[in-house]
Structures are given as C-alpha cells and as structure tokens.
Amino acid sequence: MYCFGLSKTFVELVLSRGLNGALNGNIGVMKSMMAEITDETNLALAYSYMPLAWSGGGAIGPMIGGLLSRPADRFPGLFGNVEFFKIYPYFLACAVPATFTAIAWLVTFLFLKEASNQSLLITHNRPLSQVSPQSHLSRPIDQVKVLQKELFEKHEIGENTPLPLRQLLIPRVLIAAGNYATISLVEIAFRAVQPVFYATPIELGGLGLDPPRIGNILAAYGVLNGFFQIFFFADLNDWFGLKAIYTTAVVSSVPLVLTFPLVNALARAYDVNWAVWTVVGTQIVGATLLNTGFACIFIYIAAASPNRGSLGATNGIAQMLVSIVRTIGPASATSMFSFSIETPSHAWFIYYYLLTLSFIGIGASLLLPRKLWKN
Fold it and tell me: Is residue 45 within 8 Å of residue 226, measured between CB atoms?
C-alpha cells in the first residue's frame, strides 16, 4: 500500500498492486484456523463472524479513500503547504490502511497462538456427553477420558496428518473449491464494475456520482453486510440449510446485475432522485445477500477436507483458484464495461457478461450436496 501511494506511473501501480496480492496469503490460513478451533456445533456461527473483517474494511476503506485522497486540495488549511501531498496526492489514503495492517501484523505475531492443537477445540452449547457415543457414562471424569481416547485414536489413524496433493484432488474438494471460485468471480466482477458505473456520466451509461458519495455508498454496503452476516447467518443456516442459502445467494446476482441498467434508465429520465436512490439501496441489499454465499462455501470447503490435517492444503487449493479468477474478473469486467460505453449499440454487453458469470455460478451450485460431506 505504501508503494501504491508512492506510484507515479501505471507500471508502478501494477507492480505495487501485484506485490500486494502476492503477500496476501493470510486468507487461507485464517479459514483453516477457524475450522480447526470449531466443530459442527458452532462452525456456522464462527464463519458468520468472518465477513465482519471484510465488511469493516469495506465500510471504513472507501471512506478513508474518499476523504484522504488529494489532501492538499481537500484540506488546504492543513495540507495545502505540504509539497509531498501535491506530488503524491493518494499517499495519505494508502498510508492509513497500510499502517493499520502493519499494526495488525505486530499484534498477530505477538499474540496469535497455533490452532492445530486439539486442546484448542471449542464447542458451543453442547454437553460433553454428546461428543461421544458413550453417553451412558455419567461421571465427568469418565466422559473426559473417553473423549481423550477418541481424539488419540483419530490421531493414530492420521486424522491430523496432512495428505499429499494428489489425494486432495478428489471430487468434493474440487466441487467446493470450484464453487468458491465461481461465486468469487461473480462478486469481484460486480464490485469492479460498481464504482466505475457510479462514476461514469449518466449520458454514457453510468450514474455520474462524485468520489465522496461513491465512498458513502460502499461504506453503507460494508456496514449492512457485516451486521447481516453476524446477526442472521447462523439462524438462516439452522432454518434453511447451507445449500438453500448458497443457491439463493448466487441466484440473487441475476437481479443484482439488472439494477445497473435500471438505475441508469431512471437517472436519464428523472435525474438522480428518490427512485434512483431506492434502486441503489436495493442493489446494496442484493449485494449483501450475495455475500452470504461466502460463509456457506467456507463451511463446505472445511467439510470437503479429507481430514483435519489437510485443512490448510484444502483451503490453499481453493484460495489458489480464487486468486486466479480475481485476477481475471476485475480486468475482464472493467474492460467489457469500457467496450460497452464506447459504442451505444454495445451498451448491454457488460450486463450480458455479468449475467453469464451469474449463470455459471448457479450451475456450479447445483453440484453441492444438501448435507455436508462426512469423513
């Protein structure tokens, strides 16, 4: 991020952004640790908290970017005489989140403990007697002994032994990882087009908003998404099941894409009025619904792992596929958007492209089982 803010050419921007992606290997590790310290009684609840970090960043990040970009122009009394911010107008907007990341790394380095030890396993609202078929044992000490024996036996048969890559390339791992890739492609393509669409003039097919207003919209989405995942995902999982939630999330991307041309049509007819903001709000709600699919697929990936020792490698396979599609998604979507606005007769090409990605995701979701895989 520091390098990105100090970039003065397009090549420097690309290199710094590539470096940022190359060093972003913590996502797979985080999901593996989450699966290692939970079990089937609280996995859905635990994964519902994971989007909090992403949503928090999604809420605060756009506000930081919109507020602190070009500080010499926006706050002349404070930064107007600082030549550095005139040469590098986006450094401050990059330096604040970069410094936060550095502090997070320090906290993690000092305080995060290894999660692979079975003693860290956390259960939720489940009597100890239920973890073992030996439920007739009434004394707590007997229950503890049985549980320890079960864990020891699992360890002996290789429950915590990482498997080689060839043994991980099984259908259930590929199905879970493939669905993670497809929903990520849909989501990242939408998120790449969204701010560009908001900034594009109305006559060219966009909404013509300024950066601060765009930042506020993205921040509102981040807040709504975070609260929704925390307070509703676990209950929705109990009521409807993972497969139903995930399929609904992917299907919601179809009307989500169609809000783009609807917003532009309303803006052309009535300018940016209450009707436009109503559809924009609906779009934010739809994007929140789409994001519930990520918590679902994280659980599917954890269940797809052949054993607990292979959780990291399984998440690594999934994250590799996602990294590939997140390289292709933004570039292809924004290029298609540019192609669409250049020629009026091609105005709908970007929406056809996004809808195609949505239908691919819907097709992939049909491969997921209604019940999680069991080892």
Answer: no
